[in-house]
Amino acid sequence: MHYYTALAEEIRANAAHLLAEDVGPGDMTAQLIPESQWARAHVITREPAVLCGVAWVDEIFRRLDGRIVLDWQAADGDHLEPNQAFLMLEGPARSLLTGERAALNVLQTLSATATATRHYVDLLAGTQARLLDTRKTLPNMRLAQKYAVTCGGGYNHRIGLWDAFLIKENHIAACGGIGAAVKEARKLASDLPLEVEVETFAELDAALEAGADTIMLDNFSLEELREAVERTAGRATLEASGNVDATTLRAIAETGVDCISSGALTKDIKAIDLSMRITEIHGET
After folding, report:
1. CA torsion 248→253→258→263, rounded to 10°?
2. Which of 43, 65, 106, 117 is geometrically suited to a Cys-Cys bond with 87, CB 3.0 to 4.6 A?
3. Catalytic residue among 168, 226, 250, 267
4. What is the 8-class DSSP label of residue 55?
5. What span, in angstroms and rounded, lies between the C-alpha atoms of 44 and 91?
6. What angle do CA 82, 88, 91 make, to 5 degrees?
7. Rounded Cα–Cα distance for residues 201 and 203 (Å)
8. Residue 76 phi/psi, 5° resolution?
9. Catalytic residue at 158?
């Protein structure tokens, strides 16, 4: 399935799930508000952020009430300053308040991933290394978070288990060695990208000999990473993995590896502090 088609389907599914878990059979508190009452509201961020999640919020309010009008003052990937109002909404007050939490939940989560990614990408400025995500994503939010990584300037590693080979320690043991595993993978699907994870220089040499497209250097020291780059000499793409955070990222990139993967972009995020405020109450227009 094409990536963008799958993403559009995930947006619809995410929105339906978020509303189902929050609204259930109905919003009891919203029923305190007269049905004819309309409102204007805006959403602000309390902290610097990179925006992500516009399509999810649009879909949540579209499903909830087609009369709601959303006016975005920023787009996915834009930098937001503290107290910046980046979304204006108008519609039935009941519906605005019913959709508030579902919308903010997805927006604060995806913006957190985009913001963390942008921070890491900025740290890599001037190096050749690309920043990759991993499969360590929040449940039922795989494509959403992968999209958020791209909004922050990062790149997607494989989407799941189906679109590339990543031969790790246990696969190697079960197949009887790196060479045997790579040979079997090429027979099974020669058109798929093929990556081998290695922990030693002997395994690196075996992966190179087997013809791996990409080699993941797992928890190599900085000195070992530099030696691996020298030894590989461009014969395969080198990916550094393990012990990657904001304090180590730049030094890892400066060893000359082609890319660096980090699960922190999607699993160790802190939600962006967002707030929706009613700014005006009026009758139905």
Report:
1. 20
2. 43
3. 168
4. H
5. 18
6. 145
7. 5
8. -55, 135
9. no
Where residue 285 falls among pLDDT bands split at 50, 70, 90?
low
Q: What is the pLDDT of residues 51-102, one digit of tens each?
A: 999 999 999 999 999 999 999 999 999 999 999 999 999 999 999 999 999 9
What confidence tens digit (pLDDT) does each residue in 202-217 have?
Answer: 999 999 999 999 999 9
Catalytic status, residue 224: no
Look up 267 and say whether it is catalytic. Answer: no
Is 136 considered catalytic here?
A: yes
Out of 63, 136, 186, 250, the active site residue is 136
Q: What is the mean pLDDT of residues 184-191?
A: 96
From the list 22, 78, 213, 218, the catalytic residue is 218
Question: 270 an active-site residue?
Answer: no
CB under 8 Å to 162, separation ≥6 — which residues? Answer: none
Residue from 12, 62, 63, 101 carrying the catalytic annotation? 101
> DSSP label at 270?
-
Residue 212 burial (CB < 10 Å; 0-12/13-18/19+)?
Answer: buried
